[in-house]
């Protein structure tokens, strides 16, 4: 059972932004590895390690593969040749480039995914609603975050209705493709109809709020967290400048 | 509209005055409403009855300011509300701020789930969604939730996910979410559909209390029976025209013919056999249904009764093969077909004909039955119509047609009378009779007590408590 962390969603996002920008600016493999390890530890402590591993792998494996193809197998660098065959040249610097780029991407992906696993989406929307941000921001975020769960629920319902008519009940890969084919059009049409049916009532209930608005839900916050957020945002903006400034003009 | 002298109030003030000469949907060839006159006084109860497609929902949306859609629908008439006069003319209609209008006139739609935002995690948050958007202080919102949940017995639902409520619970929550904004006029489209007897009493009592506080209520319903004793004005919509009617006149109208008495089959073949069955959903703390023992024999119609959320839908879905028991055994020895509680969940094709033919082998004999089934249910004229364009009753019959075309031996019906008008009810009764006469069986859940007693050989009382239910229960 995953643990819930008692941090304000903005605190998690600010910390993640600081870590990602500074690790990207540092461009050191060991910094990237340290960040990834820290993410894994946090995910393990909160009970999200398995999901984080699966989600990260689904994005990073194709990313690393493409970087290896581009930089590792057809390197133009003349030095440090490891192997060559026809147009393929594997060099040390080519592999290093692929690895450094891959690790930088991995930091962004893993930290980003960890945020999505740690932050409760309802808490995030409430935090935005309770912040001085325009009401439209909360509306846009809510519409985006809750669209996929709605569509997932809808496609489950359509699947049940089709199963009642013995359609889309096949097994294996062909069964999966058949289900996708049978559900795709009804899903889009039903979602549009649903949005149409609800829109008038959402408007009648004053959504999105035009002026001042409130939330029943509370989002726990503290002065310490507010300070941490400010420091993290300073690091996110000034950290990369501080890291990169010594190299300006040297290349 | 006829005034009931006994119940009419002494107040002369009129909250809302509606005079619609005609209303026509964009692209329609006929008017949906004609010569509608309504005057709503504070605390009054106005009941408008009518068959499906008579224009009740359209009238509700006009009252709520959702219709006419500017630049699309045609409307001619006037509406006076809270000192404002809205003019609808052939040339131009005034744009209504729906959110502002809703502070005065609130509408509970026929499909109550459409009223819920679906972007709040808990029922408590869903209840105060409109108050949140108005910026009402948190403490006041808490007080209103506490008051309303006490009135309607919603305490056990407040922490639940609104997306995982049963049909009846969903309607109750939507009604509470509408009432919490305290509009001066509430328009309720079939407010008691799918509610158990306890919830029906709670809603009826809440309506009385709101009226006492000065809220004008408009009830749009197939029948005026639950309201006949204390209505201030009763009207009947036929083809978009509102006519006066007395309560006696309405009650005298035959609703549907009672089914002929049938002998309960004694030792007929068992088609459905639940034995010690436990049903639940992944992640739920407790099972929805536990220790269910139920047999349904050939030629037998069994009714499932129980409170909203007691697991009736779950039992039917399990019998249909959509869910599996977590314990116990279920033996199904015949083909099953199920009518879902919400027709919209069962319809996804572009035309009625395509809908009913969906999934049938092109050269199979079932495909040949499609015209026959459409004719049996009076749907042949709608063969090329989009199911969503049909009135609610016809849409329900289309969903039933998709089931019947497969000739199931066991017919599973979840709240089949919901949204059906009297013609639809007669069709449903015929269908049930035909299934039983050919040796099949019917298992149904309904809160319509008259229908249950008229139709079922016996009633199985569900013992599950509403608190223990989860998704789709």
From TrEMBL, chain A:
Keyword Transmembrane in the entry? The reply is: yes
The answer to whether UniProt assigns keyword Ribosomal protein to this entry is no
Q: Which InterPro entries does the record match to this protein?
A: ABC/ECF_trnsptr_transmembrane (IPR003339)
Its record classes its membrane topology as: Multi-pass membrane protein
Q: Which Pfam family, any one of them, does this sequence belong to?
A: CbiQ
Q: Which UniProt keywords apply?
A: Membrane, Transmembrane, Transmembrane helix
Q: Which residues cross the membrane?
A: 12-45, 52-74, 98-119, 230-249
The compartments listed are:
Membrane
Name of this protein: ABC transporter permease
């Amino acid at each position: 059972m995953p643990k819930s962390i008692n941090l304000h969603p903005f605190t998690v996002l600010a910390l993640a932004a600081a870590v990602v920008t500074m690790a990207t600016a540092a461009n050191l493999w060991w910094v990237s590895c340290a960040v990834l390890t820290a993410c894994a530890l946090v995910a393990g402590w909160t009970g999200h390690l398995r999901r984080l591993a699966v989600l990260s792998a689904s994005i990073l494996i194709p990313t690393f593969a493409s970087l290896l193809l581009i930089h590792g197998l057809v390197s133009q660098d003349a030095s440090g040749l490891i192997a060559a065959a026809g147009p393929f040249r594997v060099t040390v610097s080519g592999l290093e480039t692929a690895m450094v780029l891959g690790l930088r991407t991995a930091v962004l992906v893993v930290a980003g995914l960890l945020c999505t696993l740690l932050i409760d989406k309802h808490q995030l929307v409430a935090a935005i609603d309770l912040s001085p941000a325009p009401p439209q921001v909360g509306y846009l975020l809510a519409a985006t975050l809750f669209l996929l769960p709605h569509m997932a629920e809808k496609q489950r319902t359509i699947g049940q209705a089709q199963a009642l008519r013995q359609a889309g009940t096949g097994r294996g890969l062909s069964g999966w493709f058949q289900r996708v084919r049978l559900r795709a059009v009804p899903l889009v049409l039903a979602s549009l109809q649903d949005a149409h049916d609800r829109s008038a009532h959402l408007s009648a209930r004053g959504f999105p709020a035009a002026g001042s608005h409130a939330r029943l839900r509370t989002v726990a916050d503290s002065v310490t967290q507010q300070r941490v957020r400010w420091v993290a945002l300073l690091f996110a903006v000034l950290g990369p400048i501080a890291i990169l400034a010594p190299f300006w003009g040297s290349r | 509209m006829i005034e009931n002298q006994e119940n009419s109030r002494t107040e002369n003030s009129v909250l809302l005055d509606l005079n619609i000469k005609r209303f026509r949907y964009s692209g329609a060839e006929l008017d949906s409403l004609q010569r509608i006159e309504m005057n709503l006084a504070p605390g009054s109860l106005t009941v408008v009855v009518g068959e499906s497609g008579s224009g009740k929902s359209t009238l509700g949306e006009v009252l709520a300011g959702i219709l006419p859609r500017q630049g699309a629908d045609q409307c001619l008439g006037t509406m006076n509300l809270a000192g404002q006069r809205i003019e609808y003319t052939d040339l131009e209609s005034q744009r209504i701020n729906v959110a502002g209008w809703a502070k005065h006139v609130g509408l509970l739609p026929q499909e109550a789930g459409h009223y819920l935002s679906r972007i709040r995690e808990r029922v408590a948050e869903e209840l105060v969604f409109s108050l949140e958007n108005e910026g009402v202080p948190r403490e006041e919102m808490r007080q209103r939730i506490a008051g309303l949940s006490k009135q309607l017995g919603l305490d056990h639902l407040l922490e639940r996910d609104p997306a995982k409520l049963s049909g009846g619970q969903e309607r109750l929550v939507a009604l509470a979410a509408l009432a919490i904004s305290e509009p001066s006029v509430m328009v309720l489209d079939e407010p008691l559909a799918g509610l158990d007897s306890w919830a029906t009493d709670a809603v009826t009592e809440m309506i009385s209390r709101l009226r006492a506080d000065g809220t004008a209520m408009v009830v749009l319903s197939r029948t005026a029976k639950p309201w006949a004793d204390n209505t201030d004005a009763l009207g009947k919509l036929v083809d978009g025209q509102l006519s006066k009617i007395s309560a006696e006149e309405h009650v005298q109208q035959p609703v549907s013919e009672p089914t002929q008495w049938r002998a309960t089959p004694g030792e007929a073949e068992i088609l459905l056999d639940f034995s010690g069955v436990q049903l639940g959903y992944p992640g739920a703390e407790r099972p929805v249904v536990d220790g269910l023992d139920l047999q349904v024999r050939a030629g037998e119609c069994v009714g499932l009764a129980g409170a909203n959320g007691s697991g009736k839908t779950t039992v039917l879905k399990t019998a249909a093969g959509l869910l599996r028991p977590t314990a116990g055994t279920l033996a199904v020895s015949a083909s099953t077909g199920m009518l879902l509680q919400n027709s919209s969940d069962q319809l996804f094709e572009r035309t009625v004909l395509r809908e009913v033919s969906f999934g049938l082998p092109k050269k199979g004999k079932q495909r040949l039955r499609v015209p026959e089934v459409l004719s049996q249910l009076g749907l042949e004229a709608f063969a090329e119509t989009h199911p969503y364009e049909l009135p609610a009753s016809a849409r329900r019959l289309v969903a039933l047609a998709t089931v019947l075309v497969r000739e199931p031996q066991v017919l599973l019906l979840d709240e089949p009378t919901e949204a059906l008008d009297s013609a639809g009810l007669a069709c449903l009764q015929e269908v049930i009779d035909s299934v039983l006469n050919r040796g099949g069986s019917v298992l149904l859940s309904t809160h319509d007590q008259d229908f249950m007693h008229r139709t079922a050989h016996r009633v199985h009382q569900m013992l599950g408590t509403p608190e223990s239910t989860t998704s789709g229960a």
